[in-house]
Every structure is written in C-alpha cells, then in structure tokens.
C-alpha cells in the first residue's frame, strides 16, 4: 500500500472506533421517531408499464415469486426452503449464525468461525428477492406479494439496527441494499400501505438514512476500490434521488454522482472492458452504472455525457463478447452479483443487460437480439428519453487492445460458431488484483456455444482455501505452468503479490485465417529466467484451431487443457477424441504436443484437478488433459483442435 493509503486506513480505523457509540441496539428501536421534515415518494412508475412486460418474462417472474411465497429460493447454489420468515444471519452451508448484536467493526467477516460463509449470509440481505416480490405485485396487483415483501422488510429493519451485526460490515452490501429499497418502494407505489411501510415508518426512514450515512463516512478506497466503490456510489446516488428526504440528500447526491462518474472511467478501459478483467464483474458494474444513471436522469440530475459515453462503450463491448448462445466469457472471478432483480433469476444475466442497453441507447445492427425483459421495460419506463451517444462501433469489434483481449471467431452468420477468447492483457486491476486469476495467455474455446476448452470458473471465495487457490491457479487454466508455480504470486484469497505482465505481439485476419500472438513475463524470476509465448490460429474454412506454445528456457512444464462439463474425452497417446451430446451434439479431435506425456484427469481431490464451476457454490467433475515434460528453449509445442462437421475429414497437424 502507498503511504497515502496507509494514512487514510489509519484514519478510517480511528473513525470506526469512535462510531462505536453510535451503534443502535435492539432495545433502542422503540425510541426511534420520525425526523422533522416532509417526506413523500414521487418516483413511481406509470402503471401502464406493467402491460409492456413480455408475457414470457411476466410468467417466469410470477412463478419465481410464487416459490418465494412458499419460502423457496436458491442462494448461490443452495436451495433454501426456510424463507417465509428468513433467518438473516444463517449460513445454510455450515449451519453457523453470524453475529447479530456485536458492533459491526468488531465482526471479522472473513472468519468462517465467526460468520460461516459470509457470501451466503450477505446475499439474502441484499433484499433483491424482495424486489422480485414487489415486481410481482406491480404486474399482478395481487396484495399477497406486497404483504410478503413488507413482512421481509420489517423483519430486516427490526433485526439489523444501525451498526449492529454482520450486515453493516461491508459498503458494497449497503449500496446494493439501497438500490433494492428504492425499487421496492417504486414498485409498491400503488399499494395502499406503501407509504406506511416507508415514509410514514420511523424505522424505515432511519434505516434509509443510516445506510447513506454509512456510505458517506466509510467509502472503499485505495487498493480495494474496484467494483465495490461503484456499487457504493450507485447505491448512494439511487437512494439520494429516490429518497431526497434529508438535509444531506443534495450533497450526498452530488458527491455520489461525481464518484460514480470518476470510478466508471477509472474501472474500465476506453473500449468499455472492465479493468478487473473478470467478465462477471463487467456485467455487474455495467448494470450498476446504467441503473444509477437512469435514476439520476429521472430525478432531473443527469450524469455527464462523458459518463454516458463510457456506459455505452461498456454495453457495446459486452454485446461483442457473447457467443451464439449469448453466453459471456468466463475470465477471472465471478460471484453472480447483480445490481437489481426485476426478473426471475437466471444463470446468465447478459441478455437482460443487452435488453436494458437497447432500451437506453438503442440496439446496434450487429448486436445479438435478446428479448425484452421485465427489468429492461421497467427501468426503461423510468428514463425520460433515450440517450444519444456518438461514436459507437458500426461493426462488431473482435479486438480490444487496451485490455489485451482478442476474440477469434467464425464470421457473423456462420453457424455453428467457433468462438475463441485469447487473454493477452494485464493480470488485473490495482495492486492487489483481487478478482484476477493466474491465467495469462489462456484461451477459452466454444463450438456452437458448447464449452470445448473451458475456463473452469471460480466456485468459492470464502471458507475453502484449497479450492479457492485451485480455481485461481495457472494449472486450472488453458495455459502453461513452469516449475510447478503460478505465473503470478498468490498472497491470499483476494491478493496477488506479483503480477505477470502480458503483451499482445500480433493480431491478423485475412478473412479465412485469424491469428493472435502474445507473451508474458510471469516466469522471469525463475533460474534461468523463462518466458512463455503463444500463437493461436483459427481457420474459418476448416473449423480448426491451432495453438503453438514456446517456452524460453529449460524447466519442468505442465500444459493443461480443460474440457467443458458436456465434453467426454478418450485419450490415446497424444491424441484425444472428444464428443458431446445435448442440444448441439458433436465430436472433435484434439492433437496434443508429442514431446509431453499426456494424462486424463476428472474430479480428483489429491491434488485437486479436473473440475468445472458453473457458478459460486457449485462445482462438478470435468475432464482435464495435462501434458508433463521438460521444456527446451526454442522448442515449439503444437496443439490442434479439429471440429468434425458433416463431410469434413481430419488432416494431420503441421506447425
């Protein structure tokens, strides 16, 4: 950390100690009264917007809300059936209950012994499931949904007074909760009891004020100011626009708008790609930025054109990354975080993001065409007018040189699509690169939307350190490991001490053959120093992909190729036959470098190898091919993937 960061962290710690006297305990809630001043909610939606929600989205939303009425909900891969009256402090995985009464800054939320899996505990208290209940009321006018939403809100407010317990330990959680509260109030606006639940309710008003006071006092900064600070700024901006009830509301709004604009630029490349180089977080911060920007515009306090321009770039680059099934890359960490929930939950939020982008900016001709969602319609209904942004790409971009991200793929309209993501960019964002993986020069390959060479994902953040380390490691990605080491030095579950630096060397495309070449310096500290250079060539006519690796010095080498969970492999020497069934069945042949000894692994735990995670809290066995040997300086290792198409024949690989 820099001296400046150390100084403000010391100041922050002192402030936390002094705020202990401001903690509100359960026994003090009866003393809370409405602060002076007039409060009314003026940010409702036109009821006609309910009729514009597509029937399919409406049916799915109402079905999900119906499950909630029966207490059923999935939280990060865990099915829960206890949510009629939620235990806001329970980790359903470990069975532990996080502290509810302790002063929040004396709770170590990173300690599983204290809190259990804190992600499981926090997720429910984002109150996004309550937003879904409110949306069900807005669409159906069935008071049962509004009543359950009100019950959950009153329960949360009563059990979580200011600065008491685990739910006041993290600013990102507070920012996201404010977005939920604003939208719950908006969606319930026509419900007769809405005002008594919110603006006429002393505890509700104080909770909204407490949340904003916290964010103003304890912002994320320095090496931890990644997507967290965007969520905090977005939450503060949304709340101060939707609930302008306090003497500080104007100053909170102006400060939050400045911070959000600053951090959107700081956290993204000019191309719109997120600097964390973690695909899931690009979707997350784009959602946050769009939701907050629409709220500010609706309140008559629009963000600058510079901010809108960057948000458009973030949306357009998101559209350019998707495969033919509208699935995004799986680069870096992902925890399924979302800015809001106005649709039935789905494992892939990117189509809804594009639907929202189309409502705000208009859809570019090269974009995929996802259907409108409930969220896109309802948020779009809040926007005073579509936003005009100049300079958007007229054709789908496949290269983002500022981020070191290149897509090699078959031509638009050529199906099935052969899609390949190549990673030649920075290790991650800021000094700790919290959400990066040691995946320099890795590739991710899909055919017809099926993971062939797969990025294994994330699986967990807290509580299982061996699994956290594996899913971030070099051997867990489709790249080369030297001397048994990660390319970048791991210093903890959200800390990298040394960052491998990658750079793209050449990118070319003649219409038939697209090629990408890059190198990284992550093994320069070895003795002797070594480098890794990789060339990837995609042949559109032959539906083949060649990967040529070159290691710069003699070391033990392991070259790994991870297959998607749908793909079965049969290894015969240096050749693997691949096949997969399902909606888009197929076969392929993977010809591997003959200089290495190849083995097939699946679902192993000693050591961990051969796993795929579809989302946080979920993992399943998947085939992994590992080639071991000793590198020789200047030697090239050729891997060739040939997809089988009707009438096609395999041909031998050639450098």
Structure description:
By secondary structure, this protein is of the alpha+beta class. It has 16 helices and 25 strands. The chain has an eight-stranded antiparallel sheet with strand order 11-12-13-14-25-18-17-16, with no helix packed on it. Helix 10 runs antiparallel to helix 11 and helix 12 runs antiparallel to helix 13 (305-321).
Strand content range = 15-25%
State mean pLDDT (0 to 100 scale): 95
Which architecture name of the largest domain does CATH use?
A: Alpha/alpha barrel
Round the Cα radius of gyration to an integer and report it. Answer: 25 Å
Query: What's the number of helices?
Result: 16
- Number of separate structural domains: 2
CATH topology of the largest domain: Glycosyltransferase
Spatial order of the strands forming the largest sheet: 11-12-13-14-25-18-17-16
**What's the shape?**
globular
What is the straight-line distance between the termini?
46 Å
- Characterize the biggest β-sheet: 8 strands, antiparallel
Helix content: 25-40%
Beta-strand segment tally? 25
Q: Give me the CATH superfamily of the largest domain.
A: Chondroitin AC/alginate lyase
CATH class of the largest domain: Mainly Alpha
Low-confidence stretches: 647-655
């Amino acid at each position: 950390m820099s001296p400046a960061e150390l100084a403000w962290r010391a100041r922050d710690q002192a402030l936390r100690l002094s705020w202990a006297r401001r903690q509100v305990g359960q026994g003090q809630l009866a003393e809370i009264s409405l602060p002076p001043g007039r409060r009314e909610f003026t940010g409702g939606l036109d009821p006609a917007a309910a009729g514009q929600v597509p029937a399919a989205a409406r049916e799915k939303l109402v079905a999900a809300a119906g499950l909630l009425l029966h207490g059923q909900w999935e939280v990060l891969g865990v099915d829960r059936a206890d949510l009629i009256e939620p235990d806001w402090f329970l980790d359903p995985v470990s069975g532990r209950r996080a502290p509810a009464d302790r002063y929040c800054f004396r709770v170590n939320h990173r300690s599983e012994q204290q809190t259990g899996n804190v992600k499981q505990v926090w997720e429910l208290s984002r109150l996004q499931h309550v937003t879904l209940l409110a949306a069900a009321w807005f669409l159906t006018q069935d008071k049962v949904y509004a009543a359950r939403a009100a019950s959950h809100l009153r329960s949360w407010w009563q059990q979580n007074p200011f600065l008491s317990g685990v739910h006041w330990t993290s600013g990102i959680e507070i920012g996201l909760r404010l977005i939920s509260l604003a939208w719950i109030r908006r969606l319930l606006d026509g419900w007769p009891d809405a005002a008594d639940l919110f603006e006429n309710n002393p505890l509700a008003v104080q909770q909204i004020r407490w949340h904003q006071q916290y964010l103003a006092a304890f912002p994320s900064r320095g090496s931890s100011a990644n997507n967290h600070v965007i969520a905090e700024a977005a939450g503060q901006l949304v709340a101060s626009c939707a609930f302008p009830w306090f003497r500080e509301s104007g100053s909170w709004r102006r400060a939050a708008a400045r911070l959000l604009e600053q951090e959107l630029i700081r956290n993204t490349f000019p191309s719109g790609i997120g600097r964390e180089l973690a695909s899931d977080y690009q979707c997350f911060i784009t959602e946050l930025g769009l939701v907050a920007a629409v709220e500010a515009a609706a309140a008559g306090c629009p963000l600058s054109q510079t901010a809108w321009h960057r948000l458009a770039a973030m949306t357009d680059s998101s559209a350019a990354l998707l495969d033919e099934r509208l699935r995004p890359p799986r680069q870096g960490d992902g925890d399924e975080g979302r800015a809001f929930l106005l649709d039935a939950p789905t494992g892939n939020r990117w189509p809804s993001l594009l639907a929202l982008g189309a409502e705000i900016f208009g859809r570019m001709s090269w974009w995929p065409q996802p259907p409108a969602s409930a969220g896109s319609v309802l948020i779009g209904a809040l926007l005073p007018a579509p936003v005009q942004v100049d300079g958007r790409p007229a054709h789908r971009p496949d290269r983002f040189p500022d981020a070191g991200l290149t897509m090699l793929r078959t031509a638009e309209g050529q199906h099935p699509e052969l899609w390949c993501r190549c990673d030649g960019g920075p290790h991650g964002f800021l000094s700790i690169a919290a959400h990066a993986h040691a995946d320099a020069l890795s590739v991710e390959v899909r055919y017809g939307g099926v993971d062939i060479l797969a990025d294994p994902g994330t699986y967990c953040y807290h509580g299982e350190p061996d699994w956290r380390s594996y899913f971030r490691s070099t051997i867990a990605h489709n790249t080369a490991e030297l001397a048994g080491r990660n390319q970048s030095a791991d210093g903890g579950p959200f800390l990298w001490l040394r960052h491998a630096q990658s750079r793209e060397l050449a990118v070319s495309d003649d219409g038939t053959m697209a090629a990408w070449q890059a190198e990284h310096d992550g093994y320069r500290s070895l003795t002797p120093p070594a480098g890794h250079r990789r060339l990837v060539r995609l042949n559109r006519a032959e539906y083949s992909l060649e990967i040529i690796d070159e290691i710069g010095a003699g070391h033990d080498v392991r070259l790994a190729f991870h297959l998607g969970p749908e793909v079965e492999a049969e290894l015969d020497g240096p050749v693997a036959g691949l096949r997969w069934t399902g909606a888009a069945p197929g076969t392929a042949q993977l010809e591997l470098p003959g200089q290495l000894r190849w083995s097939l692994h699946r679902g192993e735990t000693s050591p961990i190898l051969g796993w795929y995670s579809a989302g946080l809290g979920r993992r399943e066995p998947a085939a992994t091919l590992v080639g071991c040997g000793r590198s020789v300086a200047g030697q090239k290792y050729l891997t060739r993937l040939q997809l089988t198409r009707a009438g096609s024949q395999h041909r031998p690989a050639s450098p």
